Amino acid sequence: xxxxxxxxxxxxxxxxxxxxxxxxxxxxxxxxxxxxxxxxxxxxxxxxxxxxxxxxxxxxxxxxxxxxxxxxxxxxxxxxxxxxxxxxxxxxxxxxxxxxxxxxxxxxxxxxxxxxxxxxxxxxxxxxxxxx
Length: 132
What we know:
Layout: H1 13-16, H2 36-40, E1 44-45, E2 55-57, E3 62-63, E4 71-77, E5 84-87, E6 92-95, E7 98-100, E8 103-109, E9 116-121, E10 124-131
Parallel strand pairs: 3-10
Antiparallel strand pairs: 1-10, 2-4, 4-8, 5-6, 5-9, 7-8, 9-10
């Protein structure tokens, strides 16, 4: 018989909800509950230190390919990496970023026909978005 895993037993609710949504909304134990639909529309938050509250823009996990100017603007708080890269599933491209107080600001040019966008902090996956 397999031993039970207690990996998530003492995980803070705002970290656990990055990747797990309970059957009953109130079991998220968040200050502000979110619906299953709201959860499914969030970006995939991969970086262990990032939380949902750290992603200011874009908060929707589905990015329209018809964005004005063809660039996606990002505003993120919490973790300041040494480098930021992005990928549409192939090569990684480095992007210049700036900081304003506790916010990281950068833009990613969209690639025609892409379905996914991954953001990397210091060469490690941090955020994932679907492109529609």
